[in-house]
Task: structure prediction
Amino acid sequence: ATAGHPSPELFQSAADEAITKLTAFNSQDISNTLWAYATAGHPSSPKLFESIEGEAIRKLDTFTPQAICNTIWSYATVGH
Result:
């Protein structure tokens, strides 16, 4: 996003793929993915954020304080 090339097809494809692999994501994978999409402001993020929500809640006890902060910041940033 900061490079000035939003790549909507790549973001959408990556979001779709991530959704199918959420059970394999660890806490850092979850928080990094959310942060990247929130920072980019990509329009596919609502579906991705809704899909990740349950997995994040199930694994919240494994999150570091930084991962918790990044996750909460990401949801706040996208208004979810």
Remarks:
- The mean pLDDT is 90.
